[in-house]
Sequence to fold (373 residues):
Amino acid sequence: MILKTFAQTRPGVANAPLPLLDGGRFAAAALVVLFHYTIGIDNYSGIAPFAGFFRGGHAGVEYFFVLSGFIILYAHRSDIGQPHKVRSFFAKRAIRILPMLWAVLIVWGLLRAGLSGQTTRGETGLGTLLLDLLLLPHAPPYVLGVTWTLTRELVFYTLFALVIVNRRIGWSVLLLWQAGVIVYAILGPTLPPWPEAIWETHNLGFGLGLAIGLAILAPPPGRRTAGALAAAGALLFAALLAAEWRLGAGLPLETLSLGIIRSPLLYLAASALLVFGLVSIDRQRTARKSRLLGWAGGCSYVLYLIHVPLGSVLLRLFRRVGQGMPAEIQLLVMTAAAIVTALMLHLWFEKPVVRRLRKWLDARARLPEPLRD
Fold:
């Protein structure tokens, strides 16, 4: 019944602005930037900015997994049960993800071939670059470290495509997949890289995002309830960050020995509460577009992709000309530079390219079937 209701939601709702969600997306990307830059500065100088306060910034990734599950259902709800929409679904996802990813991978692959040092980890050749370009899961290292999360996205897209082909079979497969991920999270078996991309615990975020997308169809919670959900998610998220900072004091910034606090599970739960609350608030108040939050949310993917390559270059620059600069100032300068660069690339490269490709896709969809291929 709920799926039938979902297919019949009012036209245009998938295009309704969600400014608070845009703000949350940017904040998550900024957390990941602060996490990686804190590690980078500590590796180069031996001093962790702000006493390693942003060691929990990796949790922005958990937020992205939940957000992705919600956005896919929210944006493609009308495709469910329509097999002829599969090609369009994959084309739209490719247009959104691949142009910027390929640009960054190719440029960074060429640059890092001439770089050496602590931020260039492991040897990566042409084979690894090709795997990263195609988002095929493989064992580390990656040319671009954050690519591992996008390989999980591809797994999710493939399984969601089954829902588009056949509603009943697709949802059954997705439920079985999430059950398998839960078993993996409980038992923690050691698996080779390909199955790990399917069963890894972060994939629970996609299921939580889908659940939020379905729950949002019911009569939305009142404004106070929505605000309470968002506040609870934000407080739990902040508490986990603070706990990881305190419990991790004196340990390497990348340590995984903090038990449940370092596990994705609690961060995923906090992210789910936060996403559900923010979406509910946006829907309750019939949110208007916010240019500032739109820009912030829009550049978050670019920021996520470019921050490690840019940070590597900036760290080498500081090593030459920034001797004596406090680690905290380095962190703030690097983060600001990454945000400004990401915004410029989003507005002047990513957005125009995506817009043109979408126009091409729309024009092609209007052609008679024999003329499409």
Remarks:
- Residues 5-14 have pLDDT under 50 and may be disordered.
